[in-house]
């Protein structure tokens, strides 16, 4: 097995009396897309900036591609997309991208990246005059232009329209297919669910849950089947036919909710029970908890 691309062990970061990162552990496997999620103030940005080499670990160890994050030999091997942009405010878009490309031995084709990310129309526009979406796309282009082994993306689709957002997703997936490791922070749960192989949820400076999006949502007890049929079905008899612990309720005439460990076998049992009694459901809907539901369960639903 290849060594992890990023390995954080027992990391502690403090600002005065505030502990931003509290003995945090996480691993990013080589070739994966790993999302680090958390509420504002959870410690994820401090953790990522430490991995990027912008901050020195106060306690614990951080290794990026096997090295200290501040090792200068890492610079050609990683790409960083900062949330604040990272370009000089007065630089023209294409000039900035060509400058970054010139710093690398084997950069991507600049013109191809410009076309891929829809930056052709803003080549002579200073960075500060670009729209928010254009600034985001230029920042992404600057992060990938050097063919990095490891890519850090901080809120990569914030402010993007749906077309640009989808194009960014496709680019991240394509880079993973070519072996690039990506560490992603985002507040869009559907983005993390769509792109990520592994999700780490951070709160109060610690990782409180880790796993694939499917693993994290599978832990929920709120998976349900909703179906409509004839009113007044024998829900007690149906519960006895379904796996132990399953609950069935009629919520309104002919509207039923089945809650439990929903899997293909349960769905087959439900339809067989209906068929055996000559009942044809008018609709059946399987509802599973989303990553956002799980995130809110773990971190709370109140504003901070």
Largest sheet properties: 6 strands, mixed
Number of strands: 13
Number of domains: 2
CATH architecture of the largest domain: 3-Layer(aba) Sandwich
Instruction: Tell me the radius of gyration.
Output: 24 Å
Distance between the terminal alpha carbons, to the nearest Å? 41 Å
Structural class by SSE content:
alpha/beta
Low-confidence stretches: none
Describe the fold and architecture.
It is a single chain. The chain has 10 helices and 13 strands. It is an alpha/beta fold and 304 residues long. It folds into 2 domains: 6-217, P-loop containing nucleotide triphosphate hydrolases (Rossmann fold, 3-Layer(aba) Sandwich), CATH 3.40.50; 221-288, Alpha-Beta Plaits (2-Layer Sandwich). The protein has a 6-stranded mixed β-sheet, with helices on both faces. A 4-stranded antiparallel β-sheet has the order 11-12-10-13, with helices on one face. The longest helix has 16 residues, at 162-177. The radius of gyration is 24 Å and the shape is elongated. Keywords: Antibiotic resistance, ATP-binding, Nucleotide-binding, Transport.
């Amino acid at each position: 097995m290849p060594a992890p691309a990023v390995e954080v062990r027992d990391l502690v970061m403090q600002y005065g009396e505030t502990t931003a990162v509290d003995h945090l552990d996480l691993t990013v496997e080589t070739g994966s897309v790993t999302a680090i999620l958390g509420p504002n103030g959870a410690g994820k940005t401090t953790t990522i900036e430490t991995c990027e080499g912008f901050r020195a670990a106060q306690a614990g160890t951080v290794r990026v591609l096997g090295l200290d994050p501040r090792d200068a030999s890492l610079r050609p091997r990683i790409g960083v997309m900062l949330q604040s942009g990272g370009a000089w405010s007065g630089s023209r878009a294409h000039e900035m991208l060509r400058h970054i490309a010139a710093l690398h031995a084997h950069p991507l084709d600049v013109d191809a990246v410009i076309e891929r990310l829809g930056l052709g129309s803003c080549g002579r526009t200073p960075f500060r005059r670009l729209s928010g979406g254009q600034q985001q796309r230029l920042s992404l282009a600057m992060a990938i232009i050097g063919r990095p082994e490891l890519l850090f993306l901080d809120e990569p689709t914030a402010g993007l329209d749906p077309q640009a957002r989808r194009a960014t997703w496709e680019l991240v997936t394509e880079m993973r297919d070519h072996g690039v490791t990506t560490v992603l922070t985002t507040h869009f749960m559907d983005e993390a669910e769509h792109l990520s192989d592994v999700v780490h949820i951070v709160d109060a400076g610690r990782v409180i849950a880790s796993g694939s999006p499917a693993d994290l949502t599978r832990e929920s007890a709120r998976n349900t089947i909703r179906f409509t049929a004839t009113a007044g079905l024998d829900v007690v008899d149906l519960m006895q036919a379904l796996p132990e612990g399953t609950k069935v309720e009629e919520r309104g005439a002919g509207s039923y909710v089945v809650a439990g460990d929903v899997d293909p076998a349960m769905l087959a049992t439900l339809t067989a029970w209906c068929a055996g009694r000559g009942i044809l459901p008018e609709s059946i809907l399987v509802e599973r908890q989303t990553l956002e539901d799980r995130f809110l369960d773990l971190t709370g639903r109140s504003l901070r």
